[in-house]
Amino acid sequence: MERAEIVHLASLVRIALSESDLEMLQIQLPKILEQFDILNEIDTAKVEPTGHAVAIESVMRDDVIEAPLSSVEVLRNAPNSVGEYIRVKAILEE
Amino acid sequence: MSTLWELSISEAHDLLVNKEIKAVELTKSYLDRINEIDGDVNSYITVCADLALEQAELADGKILSGDCGPLTGIPVQVKDLIVTKGVATTCGSKMLENYYPVYNSTVVDKLERNGAVLLGKGNMDEFGMGSSCENSAFHPTRNPWDLGRVPGGSSGGGAAAVAAGEAAYALGSDTGGSIRQPAAMCGIVGLKPTYGLVSRYGLVAYASSLDQIGPMTRTVTDCAMVMEAIGGHDKKDATSLDINIPQYSSLLSGNIEGIRIGVPSEYFVDGIQDGVREKVEDAVEQFKRLGAVVKTVSLPTTKYALACYYILAPSECSANLARYDGVKYGYSYQDTSDVWEAMEQTRKQGFGMEVKRRIMIGTYALSSGYYDAYYLKAQQVRTLIRQEFSSVFSEIDALVTPTSPTVAFKHGDKTDDPVQMYLVDVCTIPANIAGLPAMSLPCGFVEGLPVGLQLIGPQMSEARMLNIAFAYEQSADWYNQRPTL
């Protein structure tokens, strides 16, 4: 795994990496991926994939209005809020 | 009479019903025990003594009015990724160090309705990712049998607390063995139910198709009692099974005459410690003496389960943990005006290294160009593993295997090598992949450290599995042994 590939991956998952993290991952990630090669021993060309081991489909319930959390409760853990809004950093450039 | 914190749930329940003790006394006994030894064991992240005493008083009131359910007044530790209203729920992560949920998980609601007493929140590997409880952002938990060793993980806090008498029972969660492996390493009983039997509402998601909440207890009877309380359909969890929960504890006859037990040869190969193998083989002999019919079976796809899991679980986690962006809740880096830098720094500083590793592996496995080779392939192998279990369960009632290939290892032994750490879960992962119920119970000691026996059964076979475990437990008596602390 190239260093550039790890840097790209880190940008996809929005995690800043220190130089030492990068060096460590460059050693560890290929070793972990190597463990996955064993799966190539099996022919799965005609096998359907399993997403959930217990198949439950189309779960429906009655559309009943229940008391929701108050906005005060919803915002209780927000790092930065104003009134009933969460304040975020500017997303659009001027 | 034993010291109160030594009692099993069923023993304490009898004393409470007969008004020989009060829930407040029982709770104080546990709080004193925590004060006395948790500085060494470190099984808790949060102890909520005031709340516990309030709940104990409420429980005493219920008992006086003649309303004493099996868990009324019994003190519990809840793993810190199960949300508890008003009580910090950190997931063992700096990311959620100051997160105070505004609602309860369904299991905690159920315990509250039963009059349970919440002692506090259990230490764990961050977001459930780890097998030694060393990946907690706060402190590692120590094994009560040997403080120099790990308690297992990720529900290491629960296992250590129950073994050390710091809680009558604990709720853990199990994605790849996180209830069973620490239960084995601490010498207690731990059950991962059939996927969907216990609601996941309010269980902070790691790998949603694998996660299940389950009991960690000192005895099989206690395990059955807790399952009765926490199981059942929940409309808030779309994967919850709509079935009736049996009265498991009343079905523990101890008679397993004619029960068909399979011993899969693939679980007894590479890397199993000799002492562990011997203890599990002794247990198999014991099952024969108890009247079970034992036969060797083969599950050739077992060797693919670990790779399958370490693709599927990180893939799901990379999606589930995208929510920690420093905006809605949790740690938030504020020292910049740039939105992307804030997010990248939030996740850099909020997550520990194992979490970052798994998010990156998962994203890699899901990315275009690699999706078919990794994620899709793992899902297809998952199908084969499931089918193989189904076919074996047409001939037998339960499988017996070791829970963990080794007894508890020393702190720091595996922290530098993620691949070695992942191998610790090799016996427990297949049950998660196939959604099967599986449990660990004590089956002896090697050099003073507990060994765990694993039972794996077909979906929804908890009642039978608990009875098999009960028959063994009562005939072997390991469960009466406790660490000296």
CATH class descriptor of chain B: Alpha Beta
What is the helix fraction of residues of chain A, given as a range? 25-40%
Q: How many strand units of chain B?
A: 11
Structural class call of chain A reads mainly alpha
Tell me, rounded to a whole number, the average pLDDT of chain B: 97
Span between termini of chain B: 19 Å
Which CATH architecture of chain B would you pick?
Alpha-Beta Complex
Total of helices of chain B: 15
Shape descriptor of chain B: globular
Residue windows where pLDDT falls under 50 for at least 5 positions of chain A: none
Beta-sheet strand percentage of chain A?
under 5%
Measured by residues with Cβ under 8 Å of the partner chain's Cβ, the largest interface is: A-B, 50 and 73 residues
Q: What's the shape of chain A?
A: flat
Element string of chain B (H = helix, E = strand): HHEHEHEHEHEEHEHEHHHHEHHEEH
Mean residue pLDDT of chain A: 92
What is the H/E order of chain A? HHHEE
Neighbour order of strands in the largest sheet of chain B: 1-3-2-4-6-5-10-11-9-7-8
Give the oligomeric state of the chains in this entry, treating copies of one chain as homo and distinct chains as hetero. Answer: heterodimer
Explain what this protein looks like in three dimensions.
The complex is a heterodimer of chains A (94) and B (485). Chain A has 3 helices and 2 strands; from the N terminus they run H-H-H-E-E. Chain A is mainly alpha-helical and 94 residues long. Chain A has a domain at 3-41. Chain A has a two-stranded antiparallel sheet. The longest helix of chain A is centred in the N-terminal third of the chain and has 17 residues, at 19-35. Chain A is flat, with a radius of gyration of 23 Å. The mean pLDDT of chain A is 92. Chain B is an alpha/beta fold and 485 residues long. Chain B has one domain: Amidase signature (AS) enzymes, CATH 3.90.1300.10. Chain B has 15 helices and 11 strands. In chain B, helix 2 packs antiparallel against helix 3 (49-64), helix 5 (156-164) runs parallel beside helix 6 and helix 9 (302-320) crosses helix 11 (353-366). The longest helix of chain B has 21 residues, at 372-392. Chain B is globular and about 65 Å long. The model of chain B has no long low-confidence stretch (mean pLDDT 97). The interface between A and B is large, with 50 and 73 residues.
